[in-house]
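Milestone M4 deliverable, item 7.
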Amino acid sequence: MERAKNLKPIASDNSVRAKNRICIIVIFLFHLVGLTGFIIPSLTVLFITLVPWHLLLMLGIIVYSYDNFDSRFLLFALTTFVIGFLAEYIGVHTGWLFGHYQYGRTLGIKLFEIPLMIGVNWFLLIYAAGVILQRSRLQNTWVRIFTGSMVLTLLDVLIEPIAIHFDYWHWLDAGVPFKNYGCWFMLSALLLFIFEQFKFKRQSIVGPALLIAQFIFFAVLNLIY
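Output delivered:
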């Protein structure tokens, strides 16, 4: 009987590892498919319409992979969504944050001229960066927040040309203002600070895999367009 009891956690660990492997495979597979669709001209229009569904799929994968889903995780997700959405609302309607810009059609359904998927995107990016830093050797909270904010700002540098090209959003200024990157850094820092306050238990590499896939996706598109 003791041997049977001891086998239970081993089986459970194996099942968690298998689940995480599947999640990572799906993440990279769908980013590769999306990359192919964006590169091949005859498929581009179709794949642009699939962008919101892709983000929803990534959201589902992150939620599915989260270890011990609870109300705290849901609260963090909602908090990140709301703050990210409100920041974008202020940016679009006042220009105080990021600069003067407007959203196109690619990110789907809008509320007050802001795509709902932008809140989802902020959650995905902050969660992924937060888990990477959680798994890192950086011990100081402020160093982790600074590092994560720099990483996400670097990602935005890669995103901007592609977002403009594929009508995610467009700038009313001449080019992308430096203010945009400063606000990306500050908003990322605020949301990563909130992530730190929740003190989540160590999570799997599914979140980091998503962030790596995003870097690869936008880096390759920058080389092509």
